[in-house]
TrEMBL record:
<comment type="similarity">
    <text>Belongs to the plant dirigent protein family.</text>
</comment>
<dbReference type="GO" id="GO:0048046">
    <property type="term" value="C:apoplast"/>
</dbReference>
<dbReference type="InterPro" id="IPR044859">
    <property type="entry name" value="Allene_oxi_cyc_Dirigent"/>
</dbReference>
<comment type="function">
    <text>Dirigent proteins impart stereoselectivity on the phenoxy radical-coupling reaction, yielding optically active lignans from two molecules of coniferyl alcohol in the biosynthesis of lignans, flavonolignans, and alkaloids and thus plays a central role in plant secondary metabolism.</text>
</comment>
<dbReference type="InterPro" id="IPR004265">
    <property type="entry name" value="Dirigent"/>
</dbReference>
<protein>
    <recommendedName>
        <fullName>Dirigent protein</fullName>
    </recommendedName>
</protein>
<keyword id="KW-0964">Secreted</keyword>
<dbReference type="Pfam" id="PF03018">
    <property type="entry name" value="Dirigent"/>
</dbReference>
<comment type="subunit">
    <text>Homodimer.</text>
</comment>
<keyword id="KW-0732">Signal</keyword>
<keyword id="KW-0052">Apoplast</keyword>
<dbReference type="GO" id="GO:0009699">
    <property type="term" value="P:phenylpropanoid biosynthetic process"/>
</dbReference>
<feature type="signal peptide">
    <location>
        <begin position="1"/>
        <end position="26"/>
    </location>
</feature>
Length: 196
């Protein structure tokens, strides 16, 4: 065997193997910070689910589902027609049809913030919490930009829980109706989500 400065190839290989094994053993301590999960031997296939519902953003009346919790102070340095800086908390019903009285399938809980100075564009951060059928108790997390006057807005699905654990995908929003007098809106959502 070839010798390099007093070390043989075999000695070097065993030394490298010992170092790698020591790091791997230290990283997988039973009570340590990092623990690797063993892979399931039987492969689990991902499913694509398409969920369609109507999101009701009610800002008017005696029982609103969207409430402004912060608004930027009007000043000469912060004059924006878009409402820039406004933050609204939501607990919006999600229904099968566009009527608020149609069957409830869940609630969109989270907030949206007016995040653009030159146009009406929202930062949406919401959990779609389902209360109907096999998805009862499961959630889908949506986080993204919503340019409300665009015909179709697309926002990423960034996760989920329950049957939507490890979810990924996207949500498309289309305004079904908007009342300029009250500010109430009904938005059709089509959510395409990959999950196990």
């Amino acid at each position: 065997m070839a010798e390099l400065r007093g070390f043989s190839f075999t000695t070097g290989f065993f030394f490298l193997f010992a170092v790698v094994f020591a790091f791997a053993s230290a990283a997988e301590e039973p009570h340590g910070f990092l623990q690797s999960e063993k892979l399931v031997k039987k492969p689990v296939r991902e499913k694509l689910s398409h969920l369609r519902f109507y999101w009701h953003d009610v800002v008017s009346g005696p029982d609103p589902t969207a409430v402004t919790v912060a608004r930027a102070a009007a000043s000469s340095t912060n004059a924006s027609a878009s409402g820039f800086g406004t933050v609204v908390m939501i607990d919006d019903p999600m229904t099968v049809g566009p009527e608020l009285s149609s069957r409830l399938v869940g609630r969109a809980q989270g907030f949206y913030a007016l995040a653009a100075k030159e146009e009406t564009a929202l930062l949406m951060a919401m959990n779609l919490a389902f209360v109907e059928g096999k998805y009862n108790g499961s959630t889908i997390a949506v986080l993204g930009r919503n340019a409300v006057f665009s015909d179709v807005r697309e926002m990423p699905v960034v996760g989920g829980s329950g049957l939507f654990r490890l979810a990924r995908g996207y949500a498309q929003a289309r305004t079904h109706s908007f009342d300029p007098k009250t500010g109430d809106a009904v938005v059709e959502y089509n959510v395409f989500v990959m999950h196990y």
